[in-house]
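Feature request disguised as a bug report, sorry. It would help if multi-protein outputs had a clear separator. Right now it looks like this:
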Amino acid sequence: MTPEYVAAIDQGTTSSRCIVFDQAGEIVSAAQREHRQIFPQPGWVEHDAEEIWDNVQRVVRDALAAAGIGPDRLAAVGITNQRETTVVWDRATGRPVANAIVWQDTRTGPLLRELDRAYGEQRLRERTGLTLATYFAGPKLRWLLDHVDGLRERAERGEVLFGTMDSWLIWKLTGRHVTDVTNASRTMLMDLRTLDWDPELLDAMRVPAAMLPEIRCSAEVYGTADGLLAGVPVASALGDQQAALFGQTCFQPGEAKCTYGTGSFLLLNTGASPVASAHGLLTTVAYRIDGQPPAYALEGAIAVTGSLVQWLRDNLGLISTAAEVEELARSVDDNGGCYVVPAFSGLFAPHWRSDARGVIAGLTGYITKGHLARAVLEASAWQTREVVDAMNADSDVALRRLRVDGGMTANGLLMEFLADVLDVPVVRSRITETTCLGAAYAAGLAVGFWPDLATLREQWRSDAEWTARMDPALRERELRHWRKAVQRTLDWVD
């Protein structure tokens, strides 16, 4: 029997999903389970990697059952994952040595200052495309080596293994210890040009090479799965934002997408050469197909967008479901002069200020929960505007259209406001789960389920488009107020 489907596992920040796609790129079935967010102290965020693995097995089982198929009907499975989240596990037992440290975690701030003195931020940026920020995986690994008893000695003996979530899942599925170039490019340990672990950086970070995974292409067969997916090739791995770029079929230089999930991430394909940013963006690997040169991207990473709506729901109790935020925000005509800057883990692009913390600015007795809800949605758009301004300053051609995806794009008010503040058309993919779609596309390419990139481009469809209607003078006034609110977040942490 010829396999008719490809599956994608999306191991995200708040949940794990499995989606089954057919040859037309349509969703056949899906399953999803949330996992715990562990906050041991302010600024620390952890996950239980064993809980995540259990959830992944459950969603795979549920998605296959919902599709009415067994693993023999799958041509391949691809993996996409929350990037930078760091796991170390015992090579012999397969058990994590500690909770995973999540990308949002800020505990490595003091270590980054030490690294700046010893190595220098400019040198690191030139080598890796990254800025010195608590976001990335290498310093999280160093923290574990320094703080888990005996771990450094065990790492030097090769008894423990490091990986981001893609490596953890590939190892659990196949027993292979590998990662792909997109995830490796987020560690602060890989040279962007050689696409290999950099001995100088390993030495500066004091990371033993013996614990690192092999770096492979994004679309390539890594091994064959056991267990629930027995016999299925595991054939792709992409960090979630690169997977969304791939799923949006942004294969040409100058094409860009923004994914609105827990955080939001705008990636611009820059082609076969890395482009250094002078305006607070990251240079990263977009993807690499087996046998082909890599593609690079500029990225603007925003830490808090969808999770701000969750905060409004879970911490303040102003809404009972995330979907209610739009109705509440539409109950008022504007934000009433109120601005929410969600620097919960510092500010990411283009500011990169780990000392920042969130503020609600412009409060008066007039402000209602409707104004707060509107300011929460507007925060996602204004943060995107800051990234787009930086991207336009770095690239040769100004952004003329933005493809969007992710759960928040179902919010029509947010999409309207986004088009207003960017003053460019905002186009939503018909399949909003483009992160999973990108992982599926890459896996399918690796095994010949789809023949080439042109075939994938032909399948892409939009289902909605928004254009700017805001008066330019109002846009500039609101932007000025937003920037004032951002300034109020700075220098909070000593």
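(second protein starts here, but nothing in the output says so)
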Amino acid sequence: MLQTPSGGAGQGAAATDSGLMSIGTVLNALRDEFPDITISKIRFLESEGLVEPRRTPAGYRKFGAHDVERLAEVLRMQRDHYLPLKVIREHLDAVERGEAVALPRVGRQRAGEAVPEPAESPTVARIGRDELLAAAGVDEEELKEWESYGLLAPLPDGAYDAETVTVASLVVELGRFGIEPRHLRVMKAAADRDAGLVDQVVAPLKRHRNPQTRAHAQARTKELAGLAVQLHAALVQSALGVRLP
């Protein structure tokens, strides 16, 4: 069972008297089991409808114990079963409705079972251009500017990877501090280099003839991406002489 902060005096000001927690407190509650969890990841899972925290009049997120347990279950299902977020959401919603549903299995093998052939490319959640504009709260001209600097890019069919919502939200937040999209090109270049390095490591696994090995490539990619994000955050904090909560 995930240990969430209690409502006692030792919890601090991050939670309200009713036991609701800030996103920073939720992050700390999840970190023991999921070391690579980030605030951006929690926000992304919220944008995908996996959790629905309350909002204060000022717009701050407040999470209850049920929200934290649900987030932990989502992260476990991603880590242990490699399930798409859509499948996870539908499964958890069915469980909460009281339906008796079996956990879907993707790419898992038991003794004596045949290994299912994984898809060459994982299915990712997608959103349309209008949905992205609405989610980010920007207009068409701003989105075009971001695309011109390579911060966002549509998929071949014109839709966007759902993770783009997180990128767009962070670009907006940085803009409030006077950091313009043109200033973020160096971050995009660094991210591309990190992605290229990870891809070099997992490329032999992706090309392997064994389907289990190819399926493992996705898990290895996620693991390396998480480590790269952690290292980048640590380097930035070290350079600035600060430590984030």
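Even a blank line would do. Unrelated, but nice: Confidence is low (pLDDT under 50) at residues 6-17, 106-123.
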